[in-house]
Every structure is written in structure tokens, then in C-alpha cells.
Amino acid sequence: MPKNRLEAFSDGVLAIIITIMVLEMKVPHGDDFTALMPLLPVFLSYVLSFVYLAIYWNNHHHMLHTADHVSAGILWANLHLLFWLSLFPFVTGWMGENQLSTIPTLLYGVVLLMAAIAYWILQQAIIASHGHDSVLAKAVGSDLKGKSSPLLYLTAIFAVFIAPWISAAIYILVAIMWLIPDRRIEKQMSTTA
Predict the structure, then answer these.
(1) pLDDT value for 193
(2) What are the sequence ranges of the domains in the chain?
(3) What is the pTM of this model?
(4) Rounded distance, CA 153 to CA 172, Å?
(5) What is the pLDDT of residues 171-188, one digit of tens each?
(6) Distances (CA, A) of 176 to 91, 132, 161
(7) 3-state class of 13 per DSSP?
(8) Contacts of residue 165, Cβ cutoff 8 Å, sequence gap at least 6
(9) How far apart, in whole angstroms, are the C-alpha atoms of residue 42 and residue 21?
(10) Is-contact 69 134, C-beta < 8 A?
């Protein structure tokens, strides 16, 4: 089947997730800047999660651009990814409201880890459907960032018991790693065109 419905559905789900996240930030009951101070941790966790969702949306777009068609396996793998991404509003709000306390920060890392695994599964489903000589398979290559991210998330999950701010720093580090544009797919598509 063509991929356009999958892309449109995924875009819609991600837009709803971002909307839910921003609606979780409650309006303060004061009219000066001090009324905003209690919202700072919630806002910062929102910014981090927004960046993560933007990274997923961007990479998802590029990855699906390499696909000619969508199989049942790709559909289910995509839904699996969207499930984990749909938990972002909950863990974002919980971590922000509790100012990086241990369990919310740990659960945030678990959701990040599971989303990374789900993305890898989707990537593998596309490669399996399109072959190991496909554009995506060639573009992925050794995938250093893709392999290091889950390891960093695991490190952050265990580091939360030492100090939750260490975990938060690792989450920020991974986001910064992925903010640096990854041109592997674009390069591979230009060489095969």
C-alpha cells in the first residue's frame, strides 16, 4: 500500500501529542514574573520533550521518504513507535511537576529508551520490506548515534539513583546529539538518483 496514509496519520498523532503537552502547562494565578517561577521546571521539561518530538518527526519523515510502499509489519512498527511517543505528555508533565525527582525522571528515561527501540524496530521493518540493498539500509550503515542513544538512556536510568540531574543532563546530551543534522539518508538518496 502507499505510504501517504501512514505519513498523514503519524503527523496528526505527533501534532496531537505536542498539543497535549502544551495544554499540560497550567496558567499561573498571578500577574507578575514571580508567578511564573513554579512553572519553570514544567516549561523546561516541555522544551526538552518538544525537541525530542521534533527530532522524531524529522527523522521519521526522512526515513519514510526512502520507502516506496508500506507493509503490515511497517504499519504495526509505526504504531508501536507512536504508542511510546504518545506517553511523552504524561512523563514530561510528571517529571516537570516533581522537579526531577527520582521515579518521574527514571520513567521519562524508560519512555525515551522504549521510543528509541521502537524507532529501531520501524527502521528494521522498512529495511526488511525494501531489502538490504535499499536506500535506507545503505544510509543507516553502522548507525553510531542510533546505537549509542539507547546505551546513554540506560546509563541515565541507572544514574537517576545517584542524582536525577545527571540523568537529565544525559537526556539533554542525547537530544543535542540528534539536533546535529544527520544527512546520511539525503546523501544516499542523491547518489542513487
Answers:
(1) 60
(2) 4-192
(3) 0.92
(4) 11
(5) 999 999 999 767 777 777
(6) 20, 30, 23
(7) helix
(8) 100
(9) 10
(10) no
**Measured distance CA(36)–CA(42) in Å, rounded:** 10
Q: How far lies 137's CA from each of 16, 33, 81, 94, in Å?
A: 30, 51, 19, 37
Phi/psi for 102 (5° steps) reads -55, -60
Rounded Cα gap, residues 98 and 92, in angstroms:
10
Burial 27-58 (b: 16+ CB within 10 A, else e): eeeeeeeeeeeebeebebbbebbbbbbebbbe
Phi, psi for 3 (deg, rounded to 5)? -90, -10
Amino acid at 105: T
Give the Cα separation of 129 and 172 in Å (integer): 33
Q: What is the pLDDT of residue 127?
A: 94
Torsion over CA of 97, 119, 153 and 147, rounded to 10 degrees?
A: -160
Residue that the C-alpha cell 513554579 belongs to: 38
Which position has the grid cell 521519562?
A: 108
Q: What is the average per-residue pLDDT within 100-124?
A: 97
Query: Scanning the structure block, which residue is given the C-alpha cell 516533581?
Result: 98
